[in-house]
């Protein structure tokens, strides 16, 4: 007669159950880590963007203050006295004249004006006035 092995009670979920539970835990951990990482990146990007906006506002305020100071200085001068030229323009003109290339200086000054207009520092009217003054027309 064949003897049957006695039935023993299971003590745990077994190998397949352990593997399944491990996969669920690992998947949950990966998903949570990805969410936290994306959230952190988004917060960092928002902080950088906010800092850039604050810097732009600060730069605009400084430009407005400089423009106001220039206007105040011009208003205090008598009507017959011409306004002082910007400090950078005489230095650039002197260096170009010394090099013997007045055409190159004119082109660089026009490029600087165009760059200032593109950056929003100069209005269309200011740009046109400065360009007319440079070209002497």
Structural summary, described in words:
With about 140 residues, this protein is an all-alpha fold. It folds into 2 domains: about 15-75; about 90-135, no CATH class. It contains 4 helices and no strands. It has helices spanning about 15-75, 90-100, 100-120, 125-135. Helix 2 packs antiparallel against helix 3 and helix 3 (about 100-120) packs antiparallel against helix 4 (about 125-135). The longest helix has about 60 residues, at about 15-75.
Set out the fold topology:
Blueprint: H1 14-76, H2 88-99, H3 102-119, H4 124-135
- From the helix content, strand content and strand pairing, which structural class follows? mainly alpha
- Beta-strand residue fraction: under 5%
**Biggest sheet features:** none
Give the tally of β-strands.
Answer: 0
Query: What percent of the residues sit in helical stretches (DSSP H or I)?
Result: over 70%
- Unreliable spans: 87-100
Short description:
With 137 residues, the chain is mostly helical. It has 4 helices and no strands.
Please describe the structure with a list of short key phrases separated by commas or semicolons.
137 residues; mainly alpha; 4 helices; rod-shaped
